[in-house]
Design a protein that fits this description.
4-stranded antiparallel β-sheet; 7 helices; alpha/beta; Rossmann fold
Length: 228
């Protein structure tokens, strides 16, 4: 594996069963992600994009093939090892922010660091630094209910980056936002990618966001058909 690759997929296939019927969601997908690269995964609904993202993040194990993270076997590691690698090296952003409603923005962002073993003080310092980077330095004490949709997604971005991961995996990160707010988040992602040299892999239907990426991977019926 190249030293510049943070994530690689080799011959990934995923098959699910519904009774006697086998459904091939992914079929022999292979590619790699360079350090600091922004990559969009595009394709129609049902093409396997979200399943691929789950495999890359170690949330599911493939029926066939291998995912490597920073040169280490990831997809077939034990559940405990995958959880450890995820916490240290992978951030996640979803279409819905998935913030804990009873926690403040600062507490939501700090939580992955606390889980990873940092002291509460150090975790909160990292959280404050990231909230400042995403333009929310004065909103750390607010709960999600006190934030706008765009602000909640900025908090989710900060949470994804707080452990200083090698790669952030994002599934339709601006799909629920209005156009102006979505474009602000798009620009923020590019700025964070440049400043932090963190790779981003983004599933999106949004043409503007995909056009801003370094590269596009297109899935059709579970197969990688083009790299743009």
């Amino acid at each position: 594996m190249s030293n510049s690759w943070v994530l690689s997929a080799e011959n990934l296939s995923q098959c699910f069963r519904e009774g006697p019927q086998a459904i091939d969601v992914l079929r022999g997908v292979s590619f790699h992600i360079e350090r600091g690269e922004c990559v969009a995964i595009v394709g129609r609904s049902g093409s396997g994009k979200t399943t691929l993202l789950h495999l890359l993040g170690g949330l599911e194990q493939p029926s066939q093939g291998v995912v490597q993270l920073l040169g280490e076997p990831f997809s077939h590691a034990s559940e405990a090892k995958r959880s450890q690698l995820r916490n240290r090296h992978v951030g996640f952003v979803y279409q819905l922010h998935h913030l804990l409603p009873e926690f403040t923005a600062r507490e939501n962002v700090a939580l992955p660091c606390v889980i990873g073993g940092l002291s509460v003080r150090e975790a909160q310092q990292r959280a404050d630094d990231l909230l400042a980077r995403v333009g929310l330095a004065d909103r750390g004490g607010h709960t999600p209910a006190q934030l706008s949709g765009g602000e909640r997604q900025r908090v989710a971005l900060a949470r994804a980056l707080v452990t200083q991961p090698a790669v952030v995996l994002a599934d339709e990160p601006t799909g629920n936002l209005d156009r102006d707010t979505a474009e602000q988040i798009h620009d923020l992602i590019l700025s964070l990618n440049k400043d932090l040299e963190t790779s981003f892999v983004i599933v999106t239907h949004e043409e503007r966001l995909a056009s801003l990426m370094d590269r596009r991977l297109r899935l059709e019926q579970g197969q990688l058909v083009a790299s743009e």
